[in-house]
Structure formats: C-alpha cells, structure tokens
Amino acid sequence: MPSFQPRPFPPPSLSGVPIEYITDQLHNLANHFWDKPDTADCTIIVPFPHAHGIPELPALSQTSLIEPSFTFAANYENSTLPRRATQPPLNAVPRISMPLHIDYLAAHSSYLRGLFSGALPLNLMYSAAPPVSSSGVPADRLPRLMPCSPDHPILFLPVPDPTCFHLLIHWMYFGDLSIIQDCLHQGLIQWDGIARNVEYLGLNAEIKIFLGNWYHAWLDTEREVESCSGDSDTIYSDSDEDE
C-alpha cells in the first residue's frame, strides 16, 4: 500500500520567507481554493462520536456552497475508510470528509504542519493503540493516516469539538473571524469547545488572542485567566501579549 510523501512547510522554494507573509498571500488567494475539492491535495476526516444521525454544522451555509459529505463507521476507533450509508446502522459514528489544501492547514496549525512533514503520528497508520504523544494529546485523540496515495494524504483527525471544526478551516483559508464571533454570540458553538480545538491543532496567536478577548469580554467579567486545559495560559488576550 503506498505511503504518503511528507510535505515540509514552508516548501524549500520559500525557505526563509516569514510564515506570516505566506499566510497573507494564501488569504489573498483563498477564493481560488475554497470549495474547490478538485484541486484539494489532502482529505481530513473528522468523527462526531456523540452525534445521532447526521450532525448539524453551525453557520455552514455562510461558509460553504458544497453539501457536506458524511459517512458512517461502525465505531469511533475504526480507522478503515467507512462507506456512505443512507440509513446508518444503530450506534454508527458519523464522519465528515473534507477535501482541503495542505498549505492552508500547515500555515496555521503547528500540529498539522508537523504531521504533513512526516512527524510520528503519520506512522501510526496500522496501529490499533497509538501511544500518547509528547504533546500530551490522549491516545484516542491522535490523528491517523488512512490508506491513501503518495500525493494525497487522508488524515483521520478526532478533534475535541467537531461541531466547530469547519469554522476554523474557513478562518484558515480567509483569515476572517467574524463568522466564529457571530456563532459564539448566538450560542451556536461553545467557547470551550473551539478553544480546545485551537489547542489541539496548535493554531497561531491570532485566534488565541481573539478567543482570549472574547472570553474576558463575555464570560469572565472579573478577567480571571482561564485556559483550555485549566492550568495553562495558552489562550490569552492582546493585553497579555503586551505585558
């Protein structure tokens, strides 16, 4: 079975170019790649372990014109490619399949950047019980490379809160936090859920500052610092950064 060919980021041709500059250029080109599955060079599969039937994705109509592709697996741990089912079996775990572009993911997520560069979790393709990673991610939350072609990795990615993952992907492409902000204000997504996703993916300071400011403004009137894990300060505000 062919294995995925690692893709370092930034690529050698952009060696020495600041990631911030590359990210800005990617945002400028986002309209040419968003909702373009034909040009995708990777697929992310995200399970919804607590959903019954096809889950609802908040603000999906504001972010995508493409109907989401759901499949069903017999259980959460099953790492084989599931088949589409019109009537899923009892207790089946729904999964969303998202054709995406590696550069957008790697530019924003240090965790995915490492995976696509060939870090350890990509070698867990056939492991039934992957070890706990050095970053502290529990074993059942480690990503796994599924059977794929060398130039198109298919990554099983069990994020902590799958209901808002698509919103983070939209932000990675466009750099626009307004939809996430609206969903938080309307209670369509939970702050702690998206914050845990941010920590899991190792996203950059921009969204951490945004979440820190939103938390202090709407959830913590006494401005008590709270993090995703409860004892770190990785979600912070812009005032924290200035200190």
Automatic annotation (TrEMBL):
It comes from the Eukaryota. Residues 101-181 form the BTB domain. InterPro entries: BTB/POZ_dom, SKP1/BTB/POZ_sf. This is BTB domain-containing protein.
